[in-house]
Amino acid sequence: MSKTEQTFTPIEKIGRKGLIQKIAEKFDRHGEGMVYGIGDDAAVLGQLSGSHPLISTEIYSEGVDFDLTYTPWQHLGLKVVSMAVSDIIAMNGKPKFLFLNLSLTNKVSVEMVELFYSGVKHGCDLYGVQLAGGDLGAAHKASTVAVTVVGTADTPVYRSGAKAGDAICVTGDLGAASCGLMVLLREKRHFETSGQLVFEPDLTPFEYVVRKQLVPEARADCIDAMKIAGIVPTSMSDVSKSLVSTLVEMMESSKSGCRIYEAALPVHPETRQTADDLEKDIDTFVLYGGEDFELLFTLPEKDVKAFAEQFKDFVVIGKVEPQAHGIKMQTAEGHEMTLT
Amino acid sequence: MSKTEQTFTPIEKIGRKGLIQKIAEKFDRHGEGMVYGIGDDAAVLGQLSGSHPLISTEIYSEGVDFDLTYTPWQHLGLKVVSMAVSDIIAMNGKPKFLFLNLSLTNKVSVEMVELFYSGVKHGCDLYGVQLAGGDLGAAHKASTVAVTVVGTADTPVYRSGAKAGDAICVTGDLGAASCGLMVLLREKRHFETSGQLVFEPDLTPFEYVVRKQLVPEARADCIDAMKIAGIVPTSMSDVSKSLVSTLVEMMESSKSGCRIYEAALPVHPETRQTADDLEKDIDTFVLYGGEDFELLFTLPEKDVKAFAEQFKDFVVIGKVEPQAHGIKMQTAEGHEMTLT
Question: Of B57, B93, B160, which is closest to A99 when you measure between CB atoms?
Fold first, then answer.
């Protein structure tokens, strides 16, 4: 808990109008491509000519999707931006404008909202996105955040375009975010039974996995590299849910099957170490964990090498097969299992 | 409570994926101006060339912004669409695409969600809007609805353009929605103390005010008439909050003052009758009530007559003055009061 969080100004003290004013000050009302941002009935954007508008929207509930015990407000602000832009990036798009809705309980102070928006600002700067509007409301029991992001794509890439023979690729590594979540939940249980007043666990040995959980980054770098390499994947999605559910969704939409290789799945050493520490099977995280926000995409075989010259942080994990093949994984021991 | 609401299928029985499928079936994935709607990481819209994109987003919490005791799910669905498109209309825009986020508690059944979306569909048809995407999540204690609407405007109208000498106009009548809310809250208190099992009050004498509360309509008809008459207001906003707060916001943004006339404020006879019945001052509703979703706009004097020939359902309630004048109302008794 930071010092700023220790001062508690109730929102009712400055009112909804005062709070909106404080937020609006942090963001440019007339940024690039924007005629008028925060402050009227609706935001007015510049003309989005020449490419397709993309829109994605998501909702996160306190106690279900985020836990304020171990999530600092500024991290939450950054994370919701990353999660939102990730959907636009996964369509081969460029995120441009962000809209944020918050409904807040009276446990939330002006200082906490300011920390949240400093995280949002950080995210906006990171991805070159502008906050263009939103809404603030009250909630009785749990706070909720809803995010809408607008982007553009010259060539949108869907989940549905994978073709038999394509290589299945994934960026970064998998399982870290869900592994980090389990560490945080374990520390929270310790905290709740310890009688301590402040939640200050030593997370040093889990720095990578906790960071992937609290402040994941959307893979804009991969899309930028694809653009430079002149490569358009046949299908793409972000791994916001688990690898398996993302893969199944992609193959079903593409009316295809696939074979992936367990041995090829990218795992960070710390994720492996932490899984051991937690006495959990690594597959729990790698196959069935969520929130990694890596990109899963399919490329014609011929494009793999060309793309690898441009971008280093991806691996081939398998191959698209005809639909009749089913969705299969060859385990490290050489067995074949069906993924569902 | 309708028969459909009496069957309770838990959402977990068909799962998030099953529920999204049920919803998606009701809506066209490739409607006009839409390349791909519900079902991928983001919606892909057709090019919005030639006019400015407008975006507005709002959040509503159960127990704060809506009460499921007296709000049927299909009415809530229709109302959130009306509230959302009202913001686009208030910018002189045409609403086109809708995005809906729901986070739902386990008190919500598949049947309730279906009723909600039948209301949403009704709203979409009413305003010529297409549902293009959204998100479904879980909530522990209270459900939340967040709505984003995308529209376009050739000539956006802001709150800030009012000029001294302009006529201040308002559509329809004021105060009915908040008066209807008070009736519903009174009936809810009766219900809670009565020991009855089903909330079935006789609302016949309050039909108009209750309808304005539960299923308000956005004033697309006014914008259409302005377009036909070739009239662009100097400023405009919807009366989603109270008349006074909308007026103050408009005059502050326009760096202007104004004088309105209490006697000119449009009030429906049933609102007046119900206020008497509730033993409340009518001003409570007309000046300080919210959710009427009428349009407040300013017109150069010369345009008022021309517009009145095209559109009947508005009245002039006052005049824009220089800022130094302040924001004043002349009461029916001839006194002058400052509005804040």
Answer: B57
* CA–CA gap between residue B176 and residue B294 (Å, rounded): 11
Residue B279 reports pLDDT greater than 90:
yes
Query: Could you give the ipTM of this predicted complex?
Result: 0.90
Query: CA-nearest residue of chain A to B136?
Result: A59
pLDDT the model gives residue B1:
47
Q: Which residues of A fall within a CB distance of 8 Å from B93?
A: 42
Which pLDDT band holds residue B50 (cuts at 50, 70, 90)?
low
Answer whether A49 sits within 8 Å of B46, measured CB to CB.
no
Q: Is A189 exposed, middle or buried (0-12, 13-18, 19+ CB in 10 A)?
A: exposed
- Cβ contacts of B261-266, under 8 Å, gap ≥ 24: B261/B317, B261/B318, B261/B329, B261/B330, B262/B329, B262/B330, B262/B331, B262/B332, B263/B332, B264/B315, B264/B316, B264/B317, B264/B318, B265/B170, B265/B174, B265/B317, B266/B170, B266/B172, B266/B173, B266/B174, B266/B315, B266/B317
Strands (E), chain B: 34-36, 43-45, 52-61, 94-104, 130-138, 144-153, 167-171, 235-238, 256-261, 295-299, 314-322, 327-330, 336-338
The verdict on a CB contact (< 8 Å) between A141 and B142 is yes
Average pLDDT over residues B71-75: 95
Could you report the per-residue pLDDT of A253-303, keeping only the tens digit for each?
999 999 999 999 999 999 999 999 999 999 989 999 999 999 999 999 999
Q: Determine the Cα–Cα distance for residues B234 and B256; give it in Å rounded to an integer.
A: 12
**Measured between alpha carbons, how far is B42 from A91 in angstroms, rounded to an integer?**
7
Over chain A, what is the mean pLDDT? 93
The contacts of residue A171 (CB under 8 Å, 6+ apart) are A219, A222, A294, A295, A313, A314
Min Cα–Cα distance to chain B from A252, Å? 12
A108-127 pLDDT, tens digit each: 999 999 999 999 999 999 99
Domain range B3-153, its CATH number among 3.40.1280.10, 3.30.1330.10, 3.10.310.10, 3.30.70.120 = 3.30.1330.10
User: What whole-number distance in Å separates Cα of residue A113 and Cα of residue A119?
Assistant: 10
Q: How many whole angstroms from its chain centre is CA A131?
A: 17
* Domain range list for chain B: 3-153, 159-338
Q: How far is CA A59 from CA A62, A195, B96, B335, in A?
A: 10, 33, 21, 49
Q: What is the pLDDT of residue A201?
A: 87
Q: Do B45 and A55 touch (CB under 8 A)?
A: yes
Name the fold adopted by A159-338. Answer: Phosphoribosyl-aminoimidazole Synthetase; Chain A, domain 2 (3.90.650)
pLDDT of residue B2: 52
Nearest to B132 among A36, A55, A135 (CB): A55
List the alpha helices (DSSP H) in B39-175: 73-89, 110-127
**Looking at beta carbons, which pairs linking B301-308 to residues 24 or more positions away fall under 8 Å?**
B301/B165, B301/B166, B301/B167, B303/B231, B304/B167, B304/B169, B306/B229, B306/B231, B307/B225, B307/B226, B307/B229, B307/B231
> Cα(B311)–Cα(B309) distance, rounded to whole angstroms?
6
Do the Cβ atoms of A91 and B41 come within 8 Å?
Answer: yes
